[in-house]
Every structure is written in C-alpha cells, then in structure tokens.
Amino acid sequence: MGAAESTSVLEDHQRLINRFTGKDAIPLDDAFWNELLAFPFPLSKLNPQEVDAATRQACAQLVHHNAWTGHFPKLLIHLIRELEGAGSAKELPVKAVNTVYFTRLFVKHLVELYSSEEIGRHLVMRGEQGAPADLLLPTVRALLAFVANTEVSAALYLLQLECVNLLLVMFATQLHAASLAASHLFLDAAMQQHDLAGPFVRRLLLLYMAQQPAPARLPLYTRTPEDGTAPNAGVLRRVGSSVASVFLLPYTAYSYLVSPPGTPQTPLANNSLLLLLVLVHFGHTNAANAAPEDEHTGEEGGGGSAGVDNPFRKALCTARDADFDAVDASMSPAGQFGAVVRVSYARLYDCLGACLKADTSTLLLYSLLHANPAFLEYVLVRTDLDTLLLPLLEVLYCAAARTPNQIYMLLIILLILSQDASFNANVHKLPLTGVPWYRERLLQRTSLGSLMVVILIRTVKYNLSKLRDVYLHTNCLATLANMAPHAHHLNAYAAQRLVSLFDMLAKKYTRLSDAAARAGPSPASLASGGPSAAAPEAGGGEGAEGVPTELHIYTDFLRIVLEIMNAILTYALPRNPEVVYALLHRQELFQPFRNHPRFYELLENIFTVLDFFNVRMDDSRLSVGEVSVERVLQVVVANARQWRGEGMKMFTELRFTYEEELHPEEFFIPYVWTLVVAQSGIPWDPGCITLFPNSQHADLQLEDIQNHDAYDVGYDAASDYADTPRESV
Fold first, then answer.
1. Which of 616, 637, 656 is the last residue of a domain?
2. For the residues of 28-46, what is the DSSP string, one character each?
3. Do the domain assignments include residue 81?
4. Cα–Cα distances in angstroms (integers) from residue 664 to residues 105, 284, 289, 439, in the given order
5. 446 bridge partner residues
6. Dmax of the chain from CA atoms?
7. Domain assignment of residue 142, yes or no
8. N or C end of the chain: which has fewer CB within 10 A?
C-alpha cells in the first residue's frame, strides 16, 4: 500500500477531518461522528509513517481548538462506546479498529509535544450532560478492560493489536519526558486500576505464549522489500546511537532487534510483551529502597521512585502455575486463588526457551526469575533445563551479534540460577549428545554444565577484547564460582578453558603490574588492598592514575579464578580428573604467583595437588618409561580415586548472589523503550525523544564506536578455540 492510496483515503475524508479539528463544536451524539469514523477500510492497512505525516497538521489544529470544541474527549467517548460493543464481534469490527487507530494519531501528537499537565487539560469534557467530566480514567480503563476480558479470535486480532498500540503510545510520556521522575498521567491512571491489573497481565502473558501469527489477509500494513528502508530507520539510528552512549550498545546491533525475513510475524504477541515490560518496570526501584509497607506485598523490587504502587508488577511477581493451582486449589483456604494471576508455567517455560533470542523475552525471563519466587522454584526443579539453557548459551556464544544489554541480562539470569545448589549439581549431570551451533570444536558427549563453563569463559574472553565491561567479567566469574563446588566430570575442553582463562587474566595482570611499577608504587602494595571487582569506578583508566584501579580489578579476577579451581580441587577432585590433567599440563603458569600476597594461600592448595600427582607421574615413568597421553590420564584417574585431601587448607566457600542496583529504573526504563521504538512498528518521531541523549552527541558517539576496532587484547575465536590434540604432561 503506497503513498497514493494513503493520500487518497485521507483526502476523501478531509472535509470531515477539517470539521473535527475546526473551531465549531459538534454535539456528542451528532451523526457526524459515525460519518467521521466510517473509513472504507481499516486505517491499519496504510503505511503508518505516511498517515502520521499526513495528519500532523490536523493534530496541531485540533489541539488549538480543543479547549472550545471538546472534540478530543468526545472522540474518546466514542472510543469507549465502540470497545464496549466490540467484544463479541464475529467479523472484523472496522469502525472500532479505525476509532482506536484514529485516536492513536492524536494521542501520539499530544504525548510527543506536551507535558502530562497540558495533556490532561485536553481530556476534560465540558458542557455535555451525561458524559464524564474527565475522560482520562474511563479511557484507560476501557482499553485495559477490553484487552483483559476479550479472547483473541481472527475477527478481533486487529482490534486487540490496535488497543495494545494505543496503550503503548499513551505510556510513551516516558519516552518524551524531561526526566524519569516526571509525571505520566496515562501510566498513573493505569496504576489505579487494581482490579484489572491481574487479568490484564494474564492476558498479555497468554498473548505472548500463544505466539499467534497475524491471520491471513489481515488488513495490516507490512513493509515490503520495495519500500526500501525500514519504517523506523531514522528513529532506529537515533535510538541505536543514543543508547550506545548510555549502555555502550552499537547501532549495528539493532538490526538484530527486528525479526529476520521469513520468520512468522506475530505482532500481537510482540507488542503485548512490550506493553507488559513497560508496565512492570514503571516506578521500578530496588526493594531495599521501597516504602516499608511494601515489604509484605510479595513483590521484590516493588514500588517506585515516588512511591508508585504498581499492581501490574505485583501481578507478575505473584503469578502462579495454573496447572498446580488446578490440583491444589481445593486444599487452600477459600478465595486464596481468586486474585492471583494463573498461567501455565509449562507453556511459559517452553515459550521463553523458544523465543529467548529476543531481548524482550530475555527481559521477561529476568523479571520472572528475579521477582517471582514461585516461577524461579519451578525452573530450578525442571529436569529439562536444556530447554531454557541451550538457547541462552547459544545467544551468549553469538555475543558479537547481540546487544551488550541482552548479554548482561542473560549473565544475570545464569547468576540467579547458580545461586541454587541443586541447579549447579543438575546441570553437570544433564548429558548433551551434541551442540550443533558450536562451530569452533565438535562437542560430543559433554554435559550441560561443561558447556556452561566453556561459554562463560568464552564470554569473559570476548568481553576483555571487545566490550571491556568489568560487570560482565564479574557476573561470569561469579556464576563459575557458584558452580565450582558442584563440578562433576568437567570434560577436557572445559578444563583446558579454565586454565587458559587464568593464563589470559595473568597476562593482563602482568602488563598492568609492569605499568604500575613504571609509574612508581610497587605492584605488591597496590594489589594488597584493592577494591572489589564490582566497584562502580572500575572501568580501567588511562594513564598512571587509571592503572592502579584496573590492577586491583584484575587482582580480584585472578583470585576468583584461583578460588574456582580451589573449590573444584577441594570438593570435587575425584570427579574431575580432566581438571587435574589440565593443571598438570600448564603448571608453570602458577609459579610466578606463588608468593603473591593475595594468591599464595590458594596456590598452596593447588601446588599440594600438583605435587601429589607429579610424584605419581614420576613413579609411573620409573616403572614403564616415557608415558603417553592416555597413560597420563589413566594415572590421574586412578590416583584421583585415592585422593583424600591431605594437606589442603579449607577456605570459606565463595558464593555470589545477585542484587539489583538502588535505582534499577535508570537502566530498565530506557532499555525497555529502546525495544519499543525498535520493534513496535509505531512511527516514532526521533526529534521528540528525550529519554535518550542529544542526537548530535549520540551520532558522534556512534561514529567513534563503529570506527574503533583497536583494543588492548585481540580476540580471535578460531585461533583461541582451535581443536588441538591433548598434549602429554
């Protein structure tokens, strides 16, 4: 559908649109309103950018005259009436679809250019008997109620989608506000609908889980190759570059936020999830910063920066398994399950696993695992953890093609899961017959736990060479540390990668130590009292001032890796002969650090193990002469069974837990709206977006990011993961 048809339809209606936006007031029940909204076919069939451009002047004219005519609140009343009568439609309710679409055009104009206070004045109805004075709450409630209470059918698919899109536009005051603390009248109105929050969240989850493609011949505009650039190409450039300066997200990554050609289009599922994320992260602050009365809501991280009581987040955080409830509801007190959202955890689990490559699904999974203890418990007891973890690990494997924000969220998900001892034990006992997407090496007869170790170490190496984000390092190492005491038959490749990780970090540490020595203070004194690896200022610095801070960080990283090795040797050595073999093969790496004040105690344990097995290897050589690789491993396996841990020092088990920052909304709200702009199909105006940094500054950041490929440490996946044969010790 091209510009000619868009222009033709609007020109045919121009007389009516002029009356609607003009200065003469038209009564609420005048026949004009039916005529205005009686477009010959759904407006959703037209190119949204062309419709938006063609109606911009009309929107401005409506705003100019609305205080006198009250036409905008009258339009909202007709919107409410159309929704009330459309829920049982058996055929496409064209008039209702057009009313919602037409309303969205004018709401978008208001949201882009005016404050919440100014918008509120345009929602007030004056001089009409029988009509509500303020249309804000009735309109928001009507939209929420329609979506929550309407089962999706082929006839109502488009109307559901348009209602979801209208709500997204209403809530986009966040996208255009001067600050996160600004007032958001539509979101504030939604937060008052406590009775609808649960059913609404349930419906959005059901729509997401259904992943229902758009019905055949649905009158919905779809971009074709002949259209050239994407509808939001200009905005995507703005958003991509802007977020690059906020989250270090390169613009090129945003090509991966759009569904690739040939994939089934599921606009209702996609936009429903976007809307859910917008709602649950509104007023989202750390639980430690929440009001005291929120402690008993069952919501982790509830509340908002201004004391927002978010019933949608509560509904998601307390959602329960519909299958479990069906069996056990009769055993519970009467009414206990009435107000609780119930969805099938099994369907949700499978859907998340199937869709985890999308940032939106990753963010939903994080929200559920972090804030819904029941869903976290359900995931932890699943026997098919590979359903969820294999897609997750594949995304981490393809980190270069994903957004750093998504990588960050996936690593946090792994950290949350690794806090559970049973999870750590189970992943090592879950066999994999193969990993077809892992290209550098043929992985056969491995375990899910070994694959996790390999991918996490690979992510550390990628981060060191490309992103250089200390928090990504910390999350990877924290997960490995949580898993270490439960390691069970790590394969040879995972064991080799663990030792090579120490080698890589040791080389980086040595360079920093040498630089610090040239700058003046001794490396030992610098390393003896550094801050934790998660310190906010730890980003590595340039020049003499930055070296000590980065040196402290890599000292901590090296110590964590040594603690990981130490935990495996202390608690699981007999079950991990390949780790012993890898340490024997590269034992010279540890010698330079044997007297280091931060490492010597941990290295004493490692050298105790090395000495034990070196003696056995010497005995084997004396008896049979030079030994082969296979013979070395046989000696290790045989003597690992006899290992009793004599001479080993016991250290407190290193455990990491995840906690959100004090103000997580500063991360999540821009992140969510980045996804909305990129994926919703709504033609956002880049010149009106204020949630992201100044466009000119962002473009300079983008150019710098795209042209900057020189890093301290090179990363070559092929060379790093070449399938080299095991060498003899």
1. 656
2. TT-THHHHHT--SS-GGGS
3. yes
4. 32, 7, 11, 36
5. 432
6. 107
7. yes
8. N
DSSP string, 379-402: HHH-S-THHHHHHHHHHHHTGGGS
Residue 617's H or E segment, with its range, is helix 600-624
Residues 478, 415 contacting (CB under 8 angstroms): yes
Q: Band of the pLDDT at 179, cuts 50, 70, 90? A: confident
Query: What does the pLDDT read at residue 466?
Result: 74
Q: What length does the chain have?
A: 729
Give the phi and the psi of residue 432 in degrees, each rounded to 5.
Answer: -120, 135
What's the confidence (pLDDT) of residue 534?
36
Q: Residues 291-318: what's their mean pLDDT?
A: 61
Which range of residues forms the domain containing residue 82? Answer: 1-195
441: region left, alpha or beta (phi > 0 left; psi from -120 to 50 alpha)? beta
- For residue range 556-567, list pLDDT tens digits in order: 999 999 999 999
What distance in Å separates the CA atoms of residue 102 and residue 473, rounded to the nearest whole number? Answer: 49
Q: How many domains in the chain?
A: 2
Instruction: Tokens for 173, please give them.
Output: 């005051």
In this structure, is the dihedral angle defined by the CA atoms of residues 422, 409, 463 and 654, taken in order, positive or negative? negative
CB 287 within 8 A of CB 294: yes
State the pLDDT at residue 273: 98
Contacts of 648 (CB under 8 A, 6+ apart): 569, 570, 605, 608, 609
In angstroms, rounded to a whole number, what is the distance separating the alpha carbons of residues 729 and 586? Answer: 8
DSSP one-letter code for 124: B
Residue 573 pLDDT greater than 80, yes or no:
yes
Residues with Cβ within 8 Å of 511's Cβ and at least 6 positions away in sequence, in order, are 712
Of 656, 684, 713, the position where a domain reaches its end is 656
Percent of the chain past pLDDT 70, that is, above it, reads 77
Classify residue 310: in a domain, yes or no: no
In the block, which residue shows the tokens 């003046």?
520
Per-residue pLDDT tens digits for 335-384: 444 479 999 999 999 999 999 999 999 999 999 999 999 999 999 999 99
Rounded distance, CA 164 to CA 268, Å? 8
Question: Which amino acid, 77?
Answer: I
702's enclosing H/E stretch is helix 695-707
Calculate Rg over the CA atoms of the chain. 30
Residue 344 lies in a domain: no
